[in-house]
Design a protein that fits this description.
Helices cover 32% and strands 48% of the residues. It is an alpha+beta fold. It has 2 domains: 1-42; 45-127, no CATH class. It is elongated, with a radius of gyration of 22 Å.
Length: 129
C-alpha cells in the first residue's frame, strides 16, 4: 500500500513539474514571438519612425538590442550608442532603455541648445497606437 501511494505521489509531482515547465516555456516563447513581431513591424532599422510626438531613429536592431539610437521631440534630443527595447503588453507601449548617451534640451525657438547632459542609463516609454 505504501509503495502504491509513493508511486502516485511521484506521478503527481512529475505532472506538476511538466505543467510548470510548460508554463515557463510558454511565457518565454510568447515574449520571444512578441519581440520578433515588434522587431519586424514596429521598429525598423535606418529610417525615422514616429510615435506620437517622438521621432525615433535606430541604426541597428538585433533582437531586442539596439544601437545608434536617436529620439527627439520639440523639446529635447536623445542620442545613445546602445540600448534595448521592452514591449509592455498591458500598456501597449515600448520602453526603450538607453545606455551611454546624451540628452539635449532645446531653447524655445528650437534652434538654440539650452542644456546638454550625458547619461549612463535613461529610459523612455513610447505609446503605440
Amino acid at each position: 500500500m505504501g509503495s502504491i501511494l509513493r508511486k502516485k505521489n511521484c506521478i503527481i509531482l512529475f505532472i506538476l513539474l511538466i505543467l510548470i515547465i510548460a508554463a515557463v516555456l510558454g511565457y518565454y516563447s510568447r515574449n520571444y514571438v512578441i519581440f520578433k513581431i515588434a522587431e519586424k513591424t514596429i521598429l525598423k532599422e535606418g529610417q525615422p519612425l514616429v510615435f506620437g510626438d517622438y521621432t525615433v531613429f535606430i541604426n541597428k536592431i538585433r533582437g531586442s538590442e539596439l544601437s545608434g539610437i536617436k529620439i527627439s521631440n520639440g523639446e529635447f534630443k536623445l542620442e545613445a550608442e546602445r540600448g534595448r527595447y521592452v514591449y509592455i503588453e498591458t500598456e501597449n507601449a515600448l520602453r526603450i532603455e538607453l545606455r551611454e548617451g546624451t540628452i539635449e534640451g532645446l531653447g524655445e525657438d528650437q534652434t538654440m541648445l539650452s542644456a546638454r547632459m550625458t547619461f549612463k542609463q535613461y529610459s523612455i516609454k513610447l505609446k503605440l497606437k
